[in-house]
Write a structure and sequence with these properties.
By secondary structure, the protein is an alpha/beta fold. Among the domains are: about 250 residues, Alpha/Beta hydrolase fold, catalytic domain (Rossmann fold, 3-Layer(aba) Sandwich); about 60 residues, no CATH class. It contains 16 helices and eleven strands. The longest helix is centred in the first third of the chain and has 45 residues. It comes from Acacia crassicarpa (northern wattle).
Amino acid sequence: MFRLWIPLLQLVELFLSTMVHMLYGFYIFSTAVAGDLSQSLAEYFSKSNTNIEVVVKEPTNGKTSVDDLPPIVLVHGIFGFGNGRLGGLSYFAGAEKKDERVLVPDLGSLTSIYDRARELFYYLKGGQVDYGEEHSKAYGHSQFGRIYEQGQYPEWDEDHPIHFVGHSAGAQVVRVLQQMLADKAFKGYENTSENWVLSITSVSGAFNGTTRTYYDGMQPEDGRTMKPVSLLQLCRIGVIIYDWLDIAWLKNYYNFGFDHFNMSRRKMGIRGLVECLLGHSGPFASEDWILPDLTIQGSIKLNYHLRTFPNTYYFSYATKQTKKIMGCTVPSSILSIHPMLFLRVFQMTQWRHPSDATPPYKGYRDEDWQDNDGALNTISMTHPRLPIEHPHRLVEKDSDCLPLQPGIWYYKMVEGDHILFIVNRERAGVKFDLLYDSIFERCRKHVFNKKLPTMPNEIQHSHSS
């Protein structure tokens, strides 16, 4: 009888988890639509009362203009979106308005970290996304993707480097992109180098994988394949049907990013849909999507090729929503955790790697992975540590790490769940402003581009502040 209860409880948990995610997704989507309708109506009724004003741009008189500032690029995580998607909704909850030159690219929300890194490069430089001939053949998708007629920062090079800020999987995307630049992996761009990246800041970054992937449906034995009955299987079916229907206005509003797999009904027909649903073709069959990259095994595979470079500044914020009570790890609060994540925080504190499965790495201990924020384990967010630990330093107060040294992962612990600093600014309150203000101040004040002229007294002032 007890054996019958276990699968029944698992089915109940799957049903509840599915409903919670669907309701939250509907809430986000409906909020975006309502915001767009409200803005359109306001613009319509205000047209008659609007006076046309001619603005004359003042000369800069030699002063530094916005165009002289290195861009700060905000890179979203899984299920995320950039400017231009979901209407006027902001993934980073409006943080992009805190600085004069911020870019928020729209990358594939479920595509692999490799594919997203390629897309990010062409978003900035311009041109048609080239996923690489070898990679495209290996994973069964088109070599070329979206065309960017005009790059957002075409002058990008070693003399014009960029600050990157990544949330969740977005942080790992930036690391892979920097390694690609160092490896000169973009055809036609033989002059790239790791020094094109001035700094990388991670907010709840997925550096070393997460045990959440196993709860949602990835097999803990290999970290690549999916369990036959799981939340991810339901997600897979929904995404395939969404892409196959290929409803233009809907995909313009939100796109999972799998256009290069050509899953549209216009290209593959009914037979192609059946093949995808059966798992014989498409991104989920080839494992060229985001979840295999977020398992502990997948992250180790990625990290094996990624370096921390001596001329780049690194900073990360590791979020945690757990605490110890009598030696047990439990959720730190009921009220401060998002309702969608409370059960997940608790589940992740209870994770045990299957005793009959090979541990994901030598020295693995379940207790190291108990602290979490509902989506990622805190141990994964501080700095790259698997399979080799990179140089790092814990920061208690921002002033303690000044002057910043390149080539070191400075990390700070923050009380909060995985979505505290995105989408809904009101939830984080003062914490939101403190975190993003410190990020933008660090990029603009404490991280220097060696090519930009800086007065000696300015350097002294910045280091001592």
